[in-house]
From TrEMBL, chains A, B:
NCBIfam families: PRK08153.1. The lineage of its organism: Bacteria, Pseudomonadati, Pseudomonadota, Alphaproteobacteria, Rhodobacterales. Gene3D superfamilies: Aspartate Aminotransferase, domain 1 (3.90.1150.10), Type I PLP-dependent aspartate aminotransferase-like (Major domain) (3.40.640.10). Belongs to the class-II pyridoxal-phosphate-dependent aminotransferase family. Histidinol-phosphate aminotransferase subfamily. InterPro entries: Aminotrans_II_pyridoxalP_BS (IPR001917), Aminotransferase_I/II_large (IPR004839), HistidinolP_aminotransfase (IPR050106), PyrdxlP-dep_Trfase (IPR015424), PyrdxlP-dep_Trfase_major (IPR015421), PyrdxlP-dep_Trfase_small (IPR015422). This is Pyridoxal phosphate-dependent aminotransferase. Its cofactor is pyridoxal 5'-phosphate. The keyword Transferase applies. Keywords: Aminotransferase, Pyridoxal phosphate, Transferase. Pathway: Amino-acid biosynthesis. It comes from the Bacteria. Residues 37-349 form the Aminotransferase class I/classII large domain. It comes from Paracoccus amoyensis. One of its GO terms (molecular function) is pyridoxal phosphate binding. PROSITE patterns: AA_TRANSFER_CLASS_2.
């Protein structure tokens, strides 16, 4: 019996979190991780120019950041060939998803997503009283056609699709996304989570007019740009939708160092290309390690690889734990049959060597 | 006519922002500010140790921050002599106020505050469909007794009081806050905004048990610790209330560099003492400048000074504009009779000298 009288929706929410962080796991295990490969962080790091920009900005932290993120939005608009009013900058995609749900979803409204897709989106939907409807993955990928049918059936106000997908690394080509858009009911807005877009083949990224009112695209500096800890991402959409964020967002919420870092990271195309090349090599390295251990890497358009253990979710969960016990932090999909896999983030060779050495040991502990 | 169908509450909200940032003003004016004295930022800057900690952490920005802010909460708990479960860390007080309103306020719920008090709190209340009720300031200070009576009359679920106050710099002693708590109706939670607590006399800060379920205290690294741009603050309250934040907060929302900076800033008590001394000197300097220009500084327990122009709100608004035209960024209270004042942030002597030189020129333009 709590002494605190919460409002009805928060009162109904469980005290759960979408993800347990590696720091908490380390404290539970009583040891640090030798390889941090579980959160799809980018171990190749941010551009050295971004690091320098952030270091240079640190002493200016007594000043609030520009609440309009004017310079960064200008650079992003030029980069994407859209207008400034098509872009909102926020505290990562997680923050922007929360704002988007709050803007569109009234208590009881239907929302469509896939069983096992990004839990933080679900967390926000439930947190604002929305009602989640789900379809299963199909061939280890989110299923655009099933999502369309679900939206038609439920009148979903938001339809979530990550392309490329997390946690499986699978992807659709841009044509499939465009066909999905054409078939969505008029009351539905597609939330196209493109957190991993920079790792995907070009033809996975659809060409959509920035003013298309049927979709909002989510992008981030957390993955390819290596700035997960800085907390900065953006969304591209219709100006009316983008303007809506100004009604509710925490206007001074984006930190000043992240703004400086993101601006420098965006400008350093050479570093991005370097990271993209390294991630391709690392995906192959993970696939090789998997194969040597009798497992199969699934194709990936992201900076992580879902490795099929060839067993079930209980085995995969035991393997995740055994790897963590060996100092290797990985995670895994949450629902069957995808939970036969473990999910391993790409990383520099020094970390891959640790995975290479310790995966057999972890497997040994399960025999 | 928008193409976007917002949920009812966001649909009803105006497209306004609580504050226009100085960067936007600079772009409108076509020139930079020589002295940035309008946002109560701490121009004495963060501890050099905090700057170094942030610089050292920049290259680790590829990693998400610890979503539990474990180390920082531990340090804050030790500093305040409370338990870890009494503390939540968030993206500044602005972010925490938004979460608190969401936790407690259902659409239509009453909320009590003062006419002219912190607009960002009001922004959150309106943003979640709460209904604001207001009492006027009394003698340029928020009026605890009137707030209690307002809460009794309206059944307010939240009662906001900043002590010391922004924008006036006035304060109550701790005894007045405790008496207020004792008289609040049982359905009311006091939101005690102590953003400026480190600048106040000791007897302004009440001794309240951390587990007291009648109050939540808001603290920040933005002001005395000089980390406004880093976006990190915390709240102290009953464990059940604090635990509630975990149901809705953006768990990975606090950036890693801010966590490192805050930890180092908290540890550097010498730097805080230095800032406190400088702020006291700066308040006196502002008072001197005011007097030389025929105006009166009000007493302040904060890092800013409300300067009574001796005229009305129209004159003060003209003066704010004239100062901005002279390259000096200041702001002013929003409602009468407090809007006879302009609000000037404390800052190093180099900036005070600019104010000293340009205030007479700004006044000249109004004659």
């Amino acid at each position: 019996m709590t002494l605190i009288r919460f409002a009805p929706i928060p009162a109904s929410l469980p005290a759960t979190v979408p993800f347990v962080g590696p720091e908490t796991l380390q404290r539970q295990l009583g040891q640090g991780f030798a390889a941090r490969l579980g959160a799809n962080e980018n171990g190749f790091g941010p551009s050295p120019k971004a690091v320098k920009a952030m270091q240079d900005e640190a002493a200016n932290s007594w000043q609030y950041g520009d609440p309009t993120s004017h310079d960064l939005i200008g650079a992003l608009a030029a980069y994407h060939g859209v207008s400034a009013e098509n872009i909102v900058v926020g505290e990562g995609i997680d923050g922007l998803l929360g704002l988007l749900v709050r803007l569109l979803i009234a208590p009881g409204d239907a929302v469509a997503t896939s069983e096992g897709a990004y839990p933080t989106f679900n967390y926000h939907v439930t947190g604002y009283g929305g009602v989640l409807h789900k379809v299963p993955y199909r061939d280890d990928a989110e299923d655009p056609q099933a999502l369309v049918e679900l939206a038609q059936r439920t009148g979903a106000r938001l339809v979530y699709l990550a392309n490329p997908d997390n946690p499986m690394g699978s992807w659709h080509n841009g044509g499939a996304i465009l066909r999905m858009l054409d078939r969505l009911p008029p009351e539905s807005l597609l939330v196209l989570d493109e957190a991993y877009a920079e790792f995907a083949p070009d033809d996975a990224i659809p060409v959509i007019a920035a003013d298309d009112p049927r979709v909002i695209r989510m992008r981030t500096f957390s993955k390819a740009y290596g700035l997960a800890g800085a907390r900065i991402g953006y969304a591209i959409g219709h100006p009316d939708l983008i303007a809506g964020f100004d009604r509710i967002r925490n206007h001074f919420g984006v930190n000043r160092i992240a703004q400086a870092g993101a601006l420098a990271a965006l400008a350093d195309r050479d570093w991005l290309a370097h990271v993209q090349r390294e991630v391709i090599k690392s995906r192959a390295r993970i696939a090789g390690i998997a194969q040597q251990n009798g497992m199969t890497a699934l194709p990936s358009a992201t900076n992580f690889v879902a490795v099929d253990t060839g067993r079930d979710g209980v085995f995969a969960a035991d393997l995740v734990k055994a790897l963590q016990g060996q100092g290797v932090f990985v995670r895994m999909p949450g629902v069957a049959p995808q939970n036969r896999c473990i999910r391993i983030s790409c990383a520099p060779e020094s970390k891959m060597a640790i995975l290479d050495a310790r995966l057999p040991k972890a497997l040994d502990t399960l025999r």
